[in-house]
Design goal:
The protein is α+β, with helices and mostly antiparallel strands. The protein has five helices and seven strands, in the order E-E-E-H-H-H-E-H-H-E-E-E.
Length: 185
């Protein structure tokens, strides 16, 4: 079973305590159903080559009885990966400096919720997910980025009374941060 630690019992949230378990796809030895193997880059974690495997569209669950024991052991021993907050924090290091960026970076270090992180057609993301009309700081740059890009990335983060929008261009442009008051419900 894949688990994610979101904070420690003492309330000291950090990137280290929020790391996520590694995840792997599932494959079965072609012609021999019943045992699920964790998929690596060129085959299973237990060493079966890719060309002998049928892949399936779900994740390997080491706790399942069908899990290959060797794959189970290797999957559980695999290094953890950064949580969404850490990945977004690292991505935003290259964003244009400003108070909104600095406040968002600080919020991510404290574990602010990354409510949405998607890539897609810029016009659709702006229309349905960016909430550009609610932004009070950096809105003009965000609006321009959505209008000039064909596809773009968008992350929405909530922290206290603020809603942050991270605009993540897919070209060599720098990411940017905008924010506005969060509608509390």
């Amino acid at each position: 079973m894949l688990t994610r630690v979101t904070h420690d019992p003492d309330g000291g949230w950090s990137f280290a305590t929020a790391r996520e378990a590694a995840s792997f796809g599932v494959g079965q030895l072609t012609g021999e159903p019943g045992v699920e193997h964790a998929m690596g880059e060129s085959g299973t974690l237990c060493g079966i080559p890719e060309n002998h495997i049928t892949r399936y569209l779900h994740l390997f669950e080491s706790a399942e009885p069908e899990a290959c024991p060797d794959c189970r052991h290797r999957a559980e021993a695999a290094p953890t990966k950064p949580c969404a907050q850490e990945r977004l924090h690292d991505t935003l290091q290259g964003a244009d400096p400003g108070q909104a960026r600095d406040d968002l970076l600080a919020a991510l270090r404290k574990g602010a919720k990354v409510r949405l992180w998607i890539h897609g057609p810029a016009a659709d993301l702006a229309r349905h997910y960016a909430r550009l009309d609610s932004l009070t700081e950096g809105a003009e740059h965000a609006f321009e980025a959505f209008n000039t890009a064909r596809t773009i990335g968008l992350a929405r983060v909530e922290d206290g009374h603020w809603l942050f929008i991270a605009v993540l261009p897919e070209d060599d442009s720098r990411p940017l941060v905008a924010r506005g008051p969060r509608m509390l419900s």
